[in-house]
Amino acid sequence: MKIKHCNNTADFRLLAKKRLPAPLFHYIDGGADDETTLRRNTDSFNDVRLIPNALADLSSMDLSTTVLGEKIDWPVFLSPTGMTRLFHHDGERAVCRAAKKFGTIYSLSTLSTVSIEEIGQLTDGPKCFQIYIHKDRGLSYEFLDRCKEAKFSSLCLTVDTLVAGNRERDLVTGMTMPPKFTLSSMMSFVSHPHWSLNFLFHEKFQLANVANKIEAGTGKLTSVIDYINNQFDRSITWKDAEKAIQYWGGPFAIKGVMSVDDAHRAVDVGASAIMISNHGGRQLDGAAAPFDQLPSIVDAVGDKIEIILDGGVRRGTQVLKALAMGANAGRIGRGYLYALAAGGQPAVERALTRLRDEVERDMILMGCSSVDDLNRSKLHF
Question: To 10 degrees, what angle do helices 334-366 and 91-101 make?
Fold first, then answer.
């Protein structure tokens, strides 16, 4: 299969599986425990049906929306993903350039392999930085200062990763950062020479935002699970979130909200938005899917805060269902990571093209000329 033959997320996933050594593919593809939540994230959309209207004037279409203080060209933007350089040597650079080209927000992870400063110089498009609170609190606030200097437009605090989920695929494959070449894994790397040569002959792997502070960020061998368990601060509270929001002074989202109670708390501490997310099914297995929780959270706080659905989106119809249920926008992570692994920036652009085309086509078929036309009257439960 070639990139030009990839028409959807499932196609890009298959190509990524062919291009990546097993430890890296399963790191992208896997979830926690039995992966029931991973599957539910996408399957939950099937519980709701769309109800189209006919004979609307669809001579003009407006897919744009405003989220986190930015007007974007269509109601989907890109989730932060750590260690992106492992999946393609262009890593975060390729993804942020694609996001700018498609008029949407790029999100950079704390655990990125390209620095805050480089992304700030590389694109003048809207940028969101995703922060994990490390035990070194000074480092966490240093991130905020660096983002201000690099002209990031918004911040996102992830609150669901105080400890690493039980990602058993990573335990089986021996996934580390950077990848460890062992007797058991060598065959997989040898059988993927294109990836292996790119990894060996491009810049050295490091976690660019923490490399000058934390030894594990310099490329010293460690597992993702060990990094999270050793470096992330389990003592953070809503008071810490409020302090960070006040210090930042701009659009600020809380990512990992799954309950109505936490949605109210996010409003109370002054967050601009909440991202309903279970970390892609990679943390607490058996948790509800973001789409499962969307209606109750919208009903509770939808008039007080922006609501972004993060998890399980694979198709344009799923974006429409989320918007009709009351979300302001959706985000994708695996949807562009598979494409990046399959073929770098050109593949990411094809994946975004296909998804955007689906959103527009599906809106036409729904009889909607604007995202504002989508509401619960368009859904059958």
Answer: 20
At residue 51's C-alpha, the angle toward residues 49 and 56, to 5°, is: 155
- The owner of tokens 């008071």 is 239
Q: Is 295 helix (H, G, I), strand (E, B) or coil?
A: helix
User: Do residues 72 and 330 lie in contact, with contact meaning Cβ atoms separated by under 8 Å?
Assistant: no
Q: What is the pLDDT of residue 187?
A: 74
Q: 289 with 37: CB under 8 angstroms? A: yes
Q: Domain extents for the chain?
A: 3-380
Residues 132 and 232 sit within 8 Å (Cβ to Cβ): yes
Three-point CA angle 317, 322, 325, nearest 5°:
125
Is 279 annotated as catalytic? Answer: yes
Q: Are 364 and 110 in contact (CB under 8 A)?
A: no
Single out the catalytic residue among 26, 88, 134, 279.
279
Burial of 1 (0-12, 13-18, 19+ CB in 10 A): exposed
Tally of CB atoms within 10 A around 62: 14
DSSP 64-80: -EEETTEEESSSEEEPP
CATH 3.20.20.70 fits 3-380, yes or no: yes
Identify the CA nearest to 80 among candidates 119, 36, 41.
119
pLDDT means over runs of 10, the chain (381 residues): 94 97 94 98 98 94 97 98 94 98 97 96 97 90 96 97 92 80 68 82 88 65 78 93 97 98 98 98 97 98 98 98 98 97 98 98 97 97 92
Question: What separation in angstroms does the CA of 241 have from each of 79, 237, 298, 369?
Answer: 20, 7, 21, 38
DSSP-assigned states of every residue in 172-237: HHT--BSPP--HHHHHHHHT-HHHHHHHHHSSPP--TTTTTT-GGGTT--B-HHHHHHHHB-TT--
Query: What is d(CA 262, CA 268) in angstroms, rounded to the nearest whole number?
Result: 10
Give dist(CA 175, CA 191) in Å, integer. 17
